[in-house]
Design a protein that fits this description.
The chain has five helices and five strands. It is α+β, with helices and mostly antiparallel strands. The protein has one domain.
Length: 132
């Protein structure tokens, strides 16, 4: 049931739908859920409530880690064209602040292999052993 709610609306033909599903498969579930929640908030006029508090949101942007399918610079250019700010690259990964509304367009980039939200560890994480 959840997968159906997160799937994009079917395209005009079966080929378009199959392509969209293939593109969405490159995006981690938390980003798909965030995009869906953002659309619902926008349509209802309510503020966005993030489905996962560990996802890092800056204004109307989400911090993502995107893995290049090939040349990392091709992916970086594509993401910047979609409005990504404060990009950084490490190996085949491009990180930065992507507009939440651009998540479907990011999914359609041929240069993208996979993308996920950069998450923040909760306060106190990693301090358990030394404080016991």
């Amino acid at each position: 049931m959840v997968a159906l709610a997160l799937s994009p609306a079917p395209g005009p033909g079966a080929e378009a739908s199959t392509g969209a599903e293939r593109d969405w498969a490159k995006v981690a579930p938390e980003l798909r859920a965030l995009y869906t929640a953002s659309r619902a908030a926008s349509e209802s006029g309510r503020p966005l409530v993030t489905p996962d508090p560990a996802i890092r949101i800056v204004e109307d942007r989400v911090i993502v880690d995107a893995v290049a399918a090939g040349d990392v610079e091709d992916l970086r250019r594509g993401l910047v064209a979609l409005g990504m700010r404060q990009t950084a690259t490490a190996g085949r990964i491009v990180s930065g602040q992507l507009p939440i509304a651009a998540i479907p367009a990011m999914a359609a980039l041929p240069s993208l292999r996979f993308a996920r939200a950069a998450v923040t560890a909760p306060r106190g994480a990693g301090r358990g052993a030394e404080q016991r």
